[in-house]
Amino acid sequence: MKLHGGVFLIPFLLSGIGFVTATSSDSGEKTLVVDRFDHACSSSIPDGWTEYQFKHSKRATLYRVVPEAAVEGDAATDCSDGCVLRAESDSGGSMIAKKFVVDLNEYPVLRWRWKVEGIIEGADGRAKETNDFPAGIYVAVRPKEGGFHPIRSLALGMARSVAGVPVPQAAFHFVWANSSEPGETFRSASSLGTALNNIVVVVESGKTNVGKWVEASVNVLEYYNRFFPGGPAMTDGVGIMTDCDNTGSKAIAYYDDLRFCAEKTDRSGNAGG
Asked: Is 16 domain-assigned?
């Protein structure tokens, strides 16, 4: 997704406060739920989310809440047995984002489940011309106190001026990639990726799990401490994006059960900070 001369930006609705309430899962784990998409089925984006489409993209990704049973091939028309978010992109791209403030020192692990119907052939997030992913979760982050380096703040201000929408100080993009190895990290291939600290983290990759629901888990605080050491961290918001605007491809993905967890270890066994 680009804006004005190939600038890749991550907008978040930063006005207002994202009020969240801690709950306990069936396992007794303390969690902050971003969304479980238990809404009524709808042809529009889910409540509480805002959509952003950039000038570069001629088409927006279609985000809507659908019955999970329909995803599995049943003729379900309501969400009585559970719903999920469906994202469909056809040579275009847009993001939905939600204000969500979390102290990562208390809730370091982000978990969700997702499913893609196929990978994007020829896509490679390390090059601007092929920077597409069938599924991705953004997390905007910032220091709990103070800010980033003044030069970084200057770049951020320039980006906000160009974009005309809020842009976070830094973000992680947790993706389902084409061929990169899970666990691989790299700065975004976008024009301002380095200046704005947009770090891509490969969570899932390739065709092995295409068509299957996959449980994902990442320790956001651990990644924050690796790339931005220096103190406690907060989130500013969460975004979801399926995009094909650079490769002119098609992609369909499903998302569900996004939540931050207090547990210090993610499911791959990586210890948190």
From this structure: no
The number of distinct structural domains making up the chain is 1
Domain range enclosing 120: 22-261
Give residue-wise pLDDT tens across range 140-154.
998 887 665 443 443
- Dihedral-angle region of residue 82 (phi above 0 means left; psi in -120 to 50 means alpha; beta otherwise): left
Q: How far apart (Å, rounded) are the C-alpha atoms in residues 108 and 119?
A: 29
The pTM of the whole model exceeds 0.70: yes
- Are 237 and 18 in contact, with CB atoms under 8 Å apart? yes
Does some domain include residue 61? yes
Indicate which CATH number applies to the domain containing 211. Answer: 2.60.120
Domain assignment present for residue 2? The answer is no
